[in-house]
UniProtKB/TrEMBL annotation:
<protein>
    <submittedName>
        <fullName>Competence protein ComK</fullName>
    </submittedName>
</protein>
<dbReference type="InterPro" id="IPR010461">
    <property type="entry name" value="ComK"/>
</dbReference>
<dbReference type="Pfam" id="PF06338">
    <property type="entry name" value="ComK"/>
</dbReference>
């Protein structure tokens, strides 16, 4: 039996690739803490999804099926806790940064470099345009809205006492 170390919580702001000694990933927390991990970003996200009830591929497939976001798909890690993240580029790219929507205050550009400004005052440089950041944030908001609304189920009973369930 393996133990899942889940570093992803409501307070997670971003996951970045690490180029520091043998660490592969840096997790930024709203408290200002930086957690360095030997695991890849994909491994961390996979473990977080599993800790919250599904695997990474299942979460991605659900969003792609429902919303047709086939590239740079937002990830719903835990809909109940409202933990959603989006990639700045293809998740297969080493330089991909995952940003957690709930902590973002704004985006800005300075000397040609794009930055994310978080609600706690921290900022990080990111490797994509402001247009990509804005589009990804909007797509994540749509994903959050879609999956936060429970499906409505109608139960009807016909004259013979048989029940029928309809999902709207």
């Amino acid at each position: 039996m393996s133990v899942v170390e889940n570093f992803i919580k409501k307070s997670t702001m971003a996951i970045l690739p690490a180029c520091y000694e043998m660490y592969r990933t840096v997790i930024l927390d709203q408290s200002g803490e930086k957690i360095y991990s030997y695991k890849s970003t994909k491994e961390i996200l996979e473990e977080a999804c599993i800790a919250y009830g599904a695997d990474y591929d299942g979460r991605i497939k659900a969003v792609r099926y429902a919303l047709k976001y086939n590239r740079k798909t937002p990830l719903m890690i835990c809909p109940l806790e409202i933990i959603y993240a989006f990639p700045t580029m293809s998740p297969d790219n080493f330089d991909c940064i995952w940003l957690f929507n709930r902590h973002i205050d704004s985006f800005f550009k300075d000397n040609g470099q794009s930055y994310v400004h978080f609600k706690n005052g921290e900022k990080i440089a990111v490797n994509c345009s402001l247009d990509v950041l804005t589009r990804q944030r909007q797509r994540t908001a749509v994903t959050m809205m879609h999956f936060s609304q429970p499906p409505f189920v109608t139960i009807t009973v016909n004259a013979r006492g048989k029940e029928a369930f309809t999902k709207e």
